[in-house]
Design a protein that fits this description.
The chain is an all-alpha fold and about 220 residues long. The protein has ten helices and no strands.
C-alpha cells in the first residue's frame, strides 16, 4: 500500500494534518495555557488600579450616568464597579443576540495596512478574559472592525447610531434598533446602555485608549 501513489498521498495527508494540529492547536495552547483568564471585575480593577491610566471603562460608565441620568438610575442605580461589570456582561450578550458580529470583526490582522485603519494588530493576551469567550473574531466586514472602537466616539453618537444608523452614518446599511430605547435616542433602556458600554470597552485595555474629549467625560473623571 505505502509503495503506491495513493499510499504516499495518504501518509502525506495524515502527516500534514498532524503538523497543522500541532502548529495551530497544541503549540499555541502550550504557549498561553499559563495566562489567567480575567473576570470582568478583575479587568475593571486592573484598569482602575493602574496609576498611568487616565480614562477607563469605569470612567465611561460614569459618563453614561452623567449623560443619561434618569434611565441609568432606573436600570443600574449608581455607577459602581459591580454595576459596571453587570452592564458589560449584558452588553456582550446584547451584541451577540442582535447579530452585530455578523457584520463586524474583532481581530486586527497584520496585513493590508489594517493597523492604519483599526489600530494595533491583535495580540493573544487581549483575548484572555471573560468577555472574549467565545472570541468574536468574525470573518465579514460589512462594517469596520471594532477591536479598537472604545473611546473613539461619544456615547450619544452610539445612541443615535443604534437608534437610527443613517442619522450618524448616512451610507450605513445597518438596521435600526429602536427596541434598545424607551422612546428616542435620549432614552436608552437597560440593554441599550449596556450595549453602548460594551462598545466603549472594546480596546479599553490598551494604555493608548483614546476617548472622545467632551465636557461630560471630563466631568466624570
Amino acid at each position: 500500500m505505502f509503495e503506491s501513489k495513493s499510499g504516499v498521498l495518504l501518509v502525506a495527508g495524515l502527516g500534514f494534518f498532524l503538523l497543522a494540529f500541532l502548529s495551530n492547536g497544541l503549540v499555541p495552547w502550550l504557549m498561553y495555557a499559563h495566562l489567567k483568564e480575567l473576570t470582568v471585575e478583575e479587568m475593571i480593577q486592573e484598569q482602575v488600579q493602574n496609576p498611568m491610566r487616565g480614562f477607563t471603562i469605569l470612567t465611561q460608565f460614569k459618563a453614561l450616568h452623567t449623560e443619561y441620568k434618569e434611565p441609568f438610575e432606573k436600570y443600574y442605580g449608581q455607577p459602581t464597579e459591580a454595576n459596571c461589570a453587570k452592564a458589560l456582561r449584558l452588553g456582550r450578550k446584547v451584541y451577540v443576540a442582535e447579530g452585530c458580529w455578523h457584520c463586524h470583526s474583532q481581530f486586527v490582522r497584520p496585513v493590508s495596512n489594517e493597523e492604519q485603519r483599526f489600530g494595533p494588530v491583535a495580540k493573544s493576551s487581549e483575548y484572555q478574559n471573560e468577555l472574549q469567550r467565545p472570541v468574536l473574531f468574525g470573518t465579514r466586514r460589512v462594517g469596520p472592525d471594532l477591536s479598537r472602537e472604545g473611546g473613539r466616539r461619544s456615547n450619544d453618537w452610539h445612541a443615535v447610531h443604534f437608534f437610527r444608523p443613517r442619522d450618524a452614518s448616512p451610507r450605513s446599511v445597518m438596521p435600526d434598533y429602536p427596541w434598545l430605547f424607551d422612546g428616542d435616542p435620549g432614552q436608552p433602556n437597560e440593554r441599550g446602555l449596556a450595549l453602548i458600554l460594551y462598545m466603549q470597552w472594546l480596546g479599553s485595555w490598551l494604555d493608548s485608549y483614546p476617548y472622545y474629549d467632551d465636557a461630560d467625560l471630563r466631568a466624570s473623571r
